[in-house]
Specification:
168 residues, mainly alpha, 2 domains, two-stranded antiparallel sheet, 6 helices, 6% strand
Length: 168
């Protein structure tokens, strides 16, 4: 899935998406929860004024960021298609909770082709590796690996495949 690949002119202006996202954000502390909520409710912030789509510029309320939707209905349709697709991606990701980073990365790569997802996952993995080597990772009571708890320290890995105490 490559959003707006068929018609890059149908891509909504970033200021429109940003404004809708800012209005939909309701203070969630968790990034995934915030993103899911923003996407789920951003369309609630598109007004109808005299039969026209309207997203007011917060700095200049007389300016309409959705003005092209009224002139080019296919752009509004493209936004709706994007919104449906990104909603599906977020729903699918929510179902993957606890499956492992490799499964999440594979799912994200289908939605966002290119190397950005793989590069980000590699950087994250390297960041975790450094934290593990430095003794910063701990295991919370819930089983989550974290740097903010006082649980047992995560043991260093050797990755040699050698078990010093093989099972009988």
């Amino acid at each position: 899935m490559l959003f707006f690949a068929d018609d890059p002119h149908a891509k909504p202006p970033s200021i429109l998406i940003t404004t809708l996202a800012a209005r939909a954000y309701s203070g969630e502390a968790d990034l995934f929860a915030a993103t899911s909520h923003v996407v789920a409710t951003m369309q609630d912030h598109v007004e109808q004024r005299n039969g026209r789509y309207w997203v007011a510029n917060p700095a200049h309320p007389g300016e309409n960021f959705a003005d092209k939707w009224n002139e080019y209905p296919d752009r509004r349709a493209a936004f709706i298609k994007w919104h449906t697709e990104i909603s599906t991606v977020l729903h699918d990701l929510a179902q993957l909770r606890g499956t492992g980073l490799d499964v999440v990365v594979s799912t994200l790569e289908k939605a966002f082709p290119g190397n950005a997802v793989r590069t980000s996952a590699s950087r994250y993995g390297e960041h975790l590796r450094r934290q593990r080597v430095d003794g910063q990772l701990r295991v919370a009571r819930t089983g989550l690996i974290t740097t903010t708890t006082t649980g047992p320290q995560l043991k260093n890995h050797t990755f040699h495949g050698h078990n010093p105490r093989p099972r009988a």
